[in-house]
Request: fold
Amino acid sequence: MRSSRFFLLTILLAAVVAPGLSRAQPIPRKVEKAPAEATLIPLSGNWRMDGDVPVHALLISLQGLANRDYPRVYLEYPVDWQWEIVRPLEGFLEKRHGIKFNRLALDDADAALAQFARYAKGYVVWDKAVRTSLIVAFTISGVEDAVVVSEDQVALAQKHGLKPIADLRGLFAGKPDHEIYQWAYDRYWARCSRDYYVLLGGHAGIEMQPGIADFGVKQRAFFSDLSANPKHPEELALERKILSQQNPASIVVGWHSYGKDTEGQHTTLVGNYGLKMEGLHNLPNVSFTCQLPLTPDFKFTNNHHVAANAQLKAEKKVYICAVATDSMGIGAWTKPGRGGIPYTWQVSMNWAWMNPPALQFFYEDKTANDYFIAGLSGPGYMYPKSIPADKFPALMRDARALMAQLDLRALELMDYSEGNRHIGNTDLPKEVVDRYYQEFPDAIGFINGYGTARTFDLRDGKPLISYDYYLDVNRSVKDAAADLEELIQLNPQRPYFLLMHIRERNPVEKVTQIFNSLTEPVEVVALDTFLKLAADAKTYQTHYQQPEDPVSRNP
Reply:
């Protein structure tokens, strides 16, 4: 008689290889334990193409090659880097994971090559007159095991025994981006990963912040900053071709180009192909951190305030829940006031395998008032209305597994495929809401929006509540308090459940001051408590997106 273990293994293998079933990208291999020592190279704060980008590009590509099979090189980004926990995480790796960093001098490419040139087979020269050539050079770096250099660094590469592999100088003069990327596609696409694709956008023009490029080089990904804007039909056509050939339910890392298209356009396009978007072009050191295991004594544990099956009784009062999204690492986590009031934070769930020590840092650094929820809309950043119905279940299987691993019980939804907080709408049609209730039977509820939205529901004690207020970074305490006062007066029925989205750089201290300025007493609660109370007293109306609602395709 076959064992139950054999039976389970058979089922798992069938789920992976059965025709028509999607699968996620393979998770990078973890080392058994963090390295006792690693090399740390500080980077300057100059990220101009005519400044220090050339030396940074060299070091980032070298990092991706040196870290391909083991975490050896860690880059120290500036203190004002957008991912604000870059320095706290460095200390966490030292203290909690026991890594001793051997520090090189600032931007010391010579010393770095002396130690790690052996992990490269040669070098690729990019054209300083054509910005896009550097992005192409990162593709070549990963495929050919080549360090990225400018013409000024050729002699340095040769000094360390590296041979020329590709030279892009003069090849792309006067050519548009779609022709440049087509050239790269024709020569290198066949050898690139189908599980990872790097959208190296974000900062455009004279500035580039390719923090995620080390991971792309490590994974042999194809790089581009192709546009999803219909105004650029040639770029859009090539982008569609690339996305259509990626493995099902795989991942796009990086971010859209600020100079070409919009966040809404590109995230919608990625969703159309049933792929995940992990959006931060300057997320640093992932080639290093993706290989680190959690410490043996650690387990992801959330600050649940109520049992999953608990039933609470709502009083006739105003309940407010403050939710911070947009990745904890670029928000208010290190700013004043955290821990003073109940606060809800959206977790980037893919970091469970892309960046495990970062999530361990947040979970261990949380206060009793910090509560974590899943987002956005699934395993990554995605818009549910843009995902074809047949591709939805595979993505949400990944989300359920990540939620279980990270001890998360509620899921945040967001959709900018047909509008944003200024135009169109961010509501969900009933069929999309149906899918979430079907795919997440163990969730205690859902929230929706970024700006305000009008999608509400309650099924089997599990609410779906949309945001009633968006706190802009530039909104003053006085004006925000007046806004909330007006909302409270416009919703006189009690209990009133006021869900509030906090734009990421607003410090908790500011939010506390706003709440303290209100004239009517309110109770600020974490999201699990908020959802349980909202399940008890349905003072909101069930509502979904309607066919006649306005739509904007360029949010």
